[in-house]
Amino acid sequence: MLTARQRLLALLTLCLALLAPFPAHAADRAPAHAADRAPVRNPVVLVHGYNADPGVWGSLREDLRAAGYADSELFSWGYDTHRSVNEVLAGQLGAYVEEVRRQTGAARVDVVSHSFGSLVSRWYVKFGGGTATVGHWISLAGPNHGTSTAWACALWDQACRDMTPGSYVVKNLAAGDETPGAVTYATFWSDCDEVVNPDSSVPLAGAVNTPVGCLDHNALLGDDATSAGVRAFLAS
After folding, report:
1. Helix (H/G/I), strand (E/B), else coil: 214
2. Rounded to the nearest 10 degrees, what angle do helices 117-127 and 90-104 cross at?
3. From the CB of residue 168, how many other CB atoms can be counted at a distance below 10 Å?
4. Average of per-residue pLDDT across 32-61
5. What would the pLDDT profile of 168-209 be if each residue is shown by its tens digit?
6. Rounded-to-integer distance, Cα 56 and Cα 60, Å
7. Per residue in 224-234, pLDDT tens?
8. What's the order of all strands across the beta sheet hosting 184-189?
9. How far is CA 63 from each of CA 31, 38, 222, rounded to the nearest angstrom?
10. Count of H helices and E strands in the chain?
11. Could you tell me which residues are beta bridge partners of residue 111?
12. Which run of H or of E encompasses 37?
């Protein structure tokens, strides 16, 4: 039979064992380690160009999915491409970005734009608060300093007027810093673009400007090398 002293020691030993923290099992620790290794990636907002729609992004979306993006991280914004960049469209894009951030919980989004969409998204970044909400900004064949081909429709279309060289939109986007804030900027341009004239309209001071060779204006949307460059830049 145990003595009173032995019973007391046994009771104290049991209490200490109950108070000691349980060691975490390897299975319990795995999610935390996996979360630590998970890449931090912004959702991507794709902004199409003039007289186009979100369907133009089919090829790039497939490539981004193959690179590991989920459909829940890819967003294609559709809009009326005949409206004013500064008065209408940049604000609508800003509202769309806020909705994407709300849905995903992301602090920032990455923006990939084609052609006229480059002016819309640049205005949002520079004048609409986008320097705080955009991580990477990419322009594919954007008429960033205007294009003379836009004169063909400028008489009746506001978006075309915005794309003409020396327009209110082009001048304000070029004034001061062309690539403001903590956003990282990239452009991809063709040296035989039949829509953007001159070809040198696309590159921006302070951006990573990548020539893609002789491609048609819309061919950049499905070009494998351009897609690889876009994915590499988004991952940088």
Report:
1. coil
2. 80
3. 13
4. 82
5. 999 999 999 999 999 999 999 999 999 999 999 999 999 999
6. 9
7. 999 999 999 99
8. 74-77, 44-47, 109-114, 134-140, 184-189, 208-211
9. 28, 20, 10
10. 8, 6
11. 45, 137
12. helix 26-37
